[in-house]
Amino acid sequence: SIGISIYPSDGEDAESLLRSADIAMYRAKASGRNTYQCYTADMGERASEIMRLEGALRKAIENQEFLLYFQPKIDAVTLKPSSAEVLLRWDRPGFGLQSPAVFIPFAEERNLIGMIDQFVLQETCRQLHEWRSQGVEVKTLAINLSSNRFTQDNMVGSLKKLLGNYGLPAHLIKLEVTEGLFLKESEIVQRNLAALRGMGIKISIDDFGTGYSSLSYLHRFPVDELKIDRSFVNNILDLSSVAPLVNAIIGIGHSLDLSVVAEGVETSGQADYLRQHGCEELQGYHFYRPMPASDYLKLLLSESISNPAS
Ligand code: C2E
Ligand code: CA
Ligand code: CA
What is the distance between the alpha carbons of residues 238 and 232, in angstroms, rounded to a whole number? Predict the structure, then answer.
């Protein structure tokens, strides 16, 4: 792979010429290797944008720019909030609230995901502890954890310690993982999942049915829940093609004794379909959007007033 830069337009001294050639070489590698690329100004802009983003992400934690949003899931029978998913937001100065869909894949690529996972775990536990110490009746929170967390030897120990520090029972935490986790056939992943479930932490498979075509992992890796992906829910009223798939997913879940949750429920038609077909929990804009902690607290408080016995 060769990167080409030309004096003087791509650099007026050796150092900047080499830097431009290097950026062009990376582009050559990215476009399949065994080729050459000439440096252009927009390559340079893209490279410095990546460096700026990486620098900003590294500082985001110490500058307290990350915050947690909460999206309630509702019980499909009672239609009351039953748990919630924790969704990360980045309040990046000058950019506003950033969706994790943008920065999480980048953080994974640049090896920054470990510190983000740690922040989310820590902050979720701290928040649960704060609410509990105010006497609030909290519900289980589902955390999205990146797959590489599950390949760490000390994963279970450090989570146990975290729960201990905040005096939290394990059933208040659920972990959402994607099917990619099961691709690796890893013994350590298997061991960690078993230990987590042994502690009482539930495991949910996010975006189920979108990532991995072999179902055999379902009997090798212990899990508790399937989460039907938004793309299926979106088209669920397409009765000839998508609905049978959703029915099949619910069937797989129930026959393996797993609970089934649907995400991205946006209409009452979708909700009715999923309820009629036995989905246990529903999540989506039709019920609640992700909300800041203060709003979620209000919801928890209003729920405990309207159902004092529950
Ligand atoms: P996900 O786990 O599939 O999360 C659900 C996403 O769908 C959220 O987007 C949520 O806001 C959005 N959503 C919820 N209901 C609806 C609906 O009815 N319609 C539509 N169109 N969208 C809906 P968000 O918050 O932008 O998160 C995007 C992804 O980023 C998540 O997808 C998850 O993969 C990742 N993510 C979020 N928080 C974290 C985190 O704390 N750690 C890690 N590792 N990943 C996270
Ligand atoms: Ca999720
Ligand atoms: Ca999902």
Answer: 10
C-beta of 104 in contact with ligand 1 (< 6 A): yes
Q: What is the pLDDT of residues 47-64, one digit of tens each?
A: 888 889 999 999 998 898
Return the number of other C-beta atoms located less than 10 Å from residue 236's C-beta: 24
Q: How far is CA 303 from CA 79, 83, 84, 185, 308, in A?
A: 12, 12, 13, 42, 8
Tell me the C-alpha distance between 27 and 38, whole Å.
Answer: 9
Distance in angstroms (rounded) separating the CA atoms of residues 232 and 237 = 10
Nearest to 222 by CA among 258, 248, 249, 252: 258
CA–CA separation, 48 and 26 (whole Å): 13
Among 201, 44, 176, smallest CA distance to 104 is for 176
Q: At what angle do helices 41-60 and 14-30 cross, to 10 degrees?
A: 90
Give every CB contact of residue 175 below 8 A, 6+ residues apart in sequence: 142, 143, 145, 196, 201, 202, 203, 204
Q: What is the mean pLDDT of residues 80-101?
A: 95
What pLDDT digit, counting tens, does each position of 119-158 carry? 999 999 999 999 999 999 999 999 999 998 999 999 999 9
What is the model's pTM?
Answer: 0.89
Nearest residue by C-alpha to atom 23 in ligand 1: 264
**Mutate which of 68, 99, 119, 144 for ligand 1 pocket (most atoms within 8 A of beta carbon):** 144
- 160-to-126, 174, 218 alpha-carbon distances in Å: 14, 13, 25
Q: Are 186 and 154 in contact (CB under 8 A)?
A: no
Closest C-alpha residue for ligand 1 atom 42: 144
How far apart (Å, rounded) are the C-alpha atoms in residues 36 and 150?
A: 39
Residues in the chain: 310
